[in-house]
Automatic annotation (TrEMBL), chain A:
Highest taxon in the source lineage: Bacteria
Cell compartments where the protein resides: Cell membrane
Organism whose genome encodes this protein: Roseovarius nubinhibens (strain ATCC BAA-591 / DSM 15170 / ISM)
Protein name: Permease protein of ABC transporter
Presence of keyword Heme: no
From TrEMBL, chain B:
Gene3D superfamilies: P-loop containing nucleotide triphosphate hydrolases (3.40.50.300)
Keyword Nuclease: no
Metal-binding found in the keyword field: no
Protein role: Part of the ABC transporter complex HmuTUV involved in hemin import. Responsible for energy coupling to the transport system.
SUPFAM superfamilies per UniProt: P-loop containing nucleoside triphosphate hydrolases
One Pfam family cited in the UniProt record for this chain: ABC_tran
Transmembrane segments: none
Organism: Roseovarius nubinhibens (strain ATCC BAA-591 / DSM 15170 / ISM)
NCBIfam families: PRK13548.1
GO molecular function ontology, one term from the record: ATP binding
Keywords: ATP-binding, Nucleotide-binding, Translocase, Transport
UniProt cross-references to InterPro entries, sorted A to Z: AAA+_ATPase (IPR003593), ABC_transporter-like_ATP-bd (IPR003439), ABC_transporter-like_CS (IPR017871), P-loop_NTPase (IPR027417)
Name of the featured protein: Putative hemin transport system atp-binding abc transporter protein
């Protein structure tokens, strides 16, 4: 008996230390991904040497400078933040809904954000000039955040009864939300003029291609703040996985935590969607793989999700850039090609476990 | 040190679940709440733990008010075992128990998890997946988690509390006895225990005080000997019941075979 207990402690210790060691490995992976994202692209020339010279402070050519600094650096920064934001959003949503199938893309939260963004593009001109100036470049991200916030809140109210979430209700409500947002966007597109249509089409492509320092500056504060807030939710999400009543008995201020979690998901998803369109599956694939590898403890899980999500999105973007170069695939296609089969595999494994 | 509830009314959906219910539970004692299905036992438990705010009346734990807004302070004073627990993610047994460790004041004592598991007869289960355990084993893991939260019955001169909602409902008889003994030991160590009980025989064996509820009202309160008597139980449960007393020892017992007998 004693030996068995010690054995158990050792196994758990292994899982814990594995989760901590993963911080280091995933950090290195992310660093490598950033370098690859800077060096690999459609320009035809390999820029590894340029990246190396730039990092070591040596002279680089004007062309290298433009490609690296003005095009690829903001693109890499955007990919890093959006990937981290989406993966952390998924992890927080799954913790909040106590359910590993919750994902901003699947249950209509991204659609809500998209509706918000399109509303801002089409109807933004109707705002009084004063308000429009105050928001400036933040108008589309803020509208997207409002859209995703409305979607998460509605979803939570519909799918949660007595502190437990029904998986079926959540997924069905997500379908309804997605359809509603699509209908709303259809109406807005019908009302849009030519310039707005061009903006919407460009935005809907779901690409990191339009990244610039200005765009990055508009969403970086939102993404950094929401990811940082989410990283502090680990303890509370662990307690919440035992149900809302038990979390309360464990001393967690449940209502406040729920509001904070909803806000975090809404802001991160909204900011990501506003800049890159709807990029699916990062939020479900990343936390699921990490739970398999290092266990469900939300403390290390949230940090690892941010690192792996950022790395994964950067690689998806690299693939999108080179696979049909010099043209680019929309990155949403790449993440869907990777993510949708993984999602089906998760469903297959969890049949019967989650009341599906 | 005591838990005091005064004139508790709870109404949900136009139906009165509790009417003018009062309860006093003292540290050092096991207080059992018994009654037929739907009599309001679990509702009263939710009020006592601060999960549910009553429509009227107050609850105090050790002189301090109880309610959802005091969650953090109360978490250091009392642990709560719910009737059923659903776990969303594939945590191991050790990880579930550690969730209890994090909020209590004993946090940081890594040996406590193993001791709590030993107390509920689950030594060596630490590395197992919680979801792969049987219902009774899961219930005991949850009890270990609750024990971790308030491991010492008395801390700094003040009693800690265990609130248990049918702790032995899904257990076999051997574990029913050992888990009730854990509760008994906690009370004997100076802590307070309030437990919803289904089994009247275990109640008679382990409780110091019994509160009998029926249809949301208190029908009787007192020692097991005072509450567990033929007329009171028969009226509350709506069937004719007869208690017996073994030749040795004073604890009465109830056999279902004797129900309805003797006209």
């Amino acid at each position: 008996m004693v030996a068995a207990t010690e054995n158990g402690m050792i196994l758990n210790g292994l899982r814990q230390s594995r989760a901590r060691r993963a911080h280091l490995w995933l950090g290195l992976l992310l660093l490598g991904s950033c370098l690859a994202s800077l060096a690999i692209g459609a320009s035809g020339t390999s820029l590894w040497q340029g990246v190396w010279r730039a990092l070591s402070g040596a002279e680089i050519s004007q062309m290298e400078r433009v490609i690296l600094w003005d095009i690829r650096a903001p693109r890499t920064g955007l990919g890093l933040l959006v990937g981290a934001g989406l993966a952390v959003s998924g992890t927080v949503m799954q913790g909040l809904f106590r359910n590993p199938l919750a994902d901003p893309g699947i249950v209509g939260v991204s659609s809500g954000a998209a509706f918000g963004a399109v509303s801002a593009i089409v109807l933004g001109g109707l705002l009084p000039v004063g308000i429009a100036t105050v928001f400036g470049q933040y108008l589309v991200p803020v509208a997207a955040c409002l859209g995703s916030w409305a979607a998460v809140s509605l979803l939570y109210v519909v799918a949660t009864r007595g502190g437990q979430t029904s998986v079926a209700t959540m997924l069905l409500a997500g379908i309804a939300l997605g359809a509603l947002a699509a209908a709303g966007m259809g109406l807005l597109i019908y009302m849009a003029d030519d310039q707005q249509l061009r903006d919407i089409t460009f935005w809907q492509l779901g690409s990191l291609g339009g990244a610039s320092w200005a765009k990055l500056g508009a969403v970086a504060p939102l993404l950094i703040l929401s990811v940082a807030a989410a990283l502090g939710l680990g303890r509370a999400l662990n307690a919440l996985s035992l149900g809302e009543a038990t979390a309360l008995h464990l001393g967690i201020p449940v209502q406040r935590i729920k509001r904070l979690a909803v806000l975090t998901v809404a802001v991160a998803t909204g900011a990501a969607v506003a800049m890159t369109g709807v990029i699916g599956f990062i939020g479900i694939v990343v936390p699921h793989l990490l739970r398999l590898a290092t266990g469900p403890d939300h403390g290390p899980l949230l940090i690892n999700a941010a690192l792996l999500g950022a790395a994964l999105l950067l690689w998806a973007d690299v693939i999108a850039r080179v696979v049909i170069g010099p043209a680019e695939l929309p990155i949403g296609i790449v993440t869907a090609l990777i993510g949708a089969p993984v999602f089906l595999w998760i469903l297959l494994r969890s049949r019967g476990v989650m009341g599906l | 040190m005591s838990v005091e509830a005064r004139e508790i009314d709870v109404e949900i959906g136009g139906r009165g679940l509790l009417r003018a219910v009062g309860l006093t539970a003292r540290a050092g004692e096991v207080t059992a709440i018994v009654g037929p299905n739907g009599s309001g036992k679990t509702t009263l438990m939710r009020v006592l733990t601060g999960e549910l705010r009553p429509d009227a009346g107050q609850v105090h734990l050790g002189g301090e008010p109880v309610g959802p807004e005091h969650a953090a302070r109360m978490a250091q004073r009392r642990g709560v075992l719910p009737q059923a627990s659903h776990l969303a993610f594939p945590f191991t047994v050790d990880e579930v128990v550690r969730i209890g460790l994090m909020s209590g004041l004993s946090a940081g004592d890594p040996a406590l998890g193993a001791r709590a598991l030993a107390a509920v007869g689950l030594s060596g289960f630490g590395a197992r997946r919680y979801q792969a355990l049987s219902g009774g084993e899961q219930q005991r893991v949850q009890l270990a988690r609750v024990l971790c939260q308030v491991w010492q019955p008395v801390r700094a001169g003040a009693a800690n509390w265990l609130f248990l909602d049918e702790p032995v409902a899904s257990l076999d008889i051997g574990h029913q006895l050992s888990i009730m003994q854990v509760a008994r030991d906690y009370a004997d160590g100076g802590g307070g225990v309030i437990t919803v009980m289904h089994d009247l025989n275990l109640t008679a064996m382990f409780a110091d005080r019994v509160l009998l509820l029926a249809r949301g009202e208190v029908r009787a309160e007192g020692t097991p000997g005072e509450v567990l008597c033929d007329e009171v139980l028969s009226a509350a449960y709506g069937c004719r019941l007869r208690l017996n007393t073994p030749p040795v020892g004073a604890v009465p017992y109830l056999l279902p075979q004797a129900a309805g007998a003797g006209g």
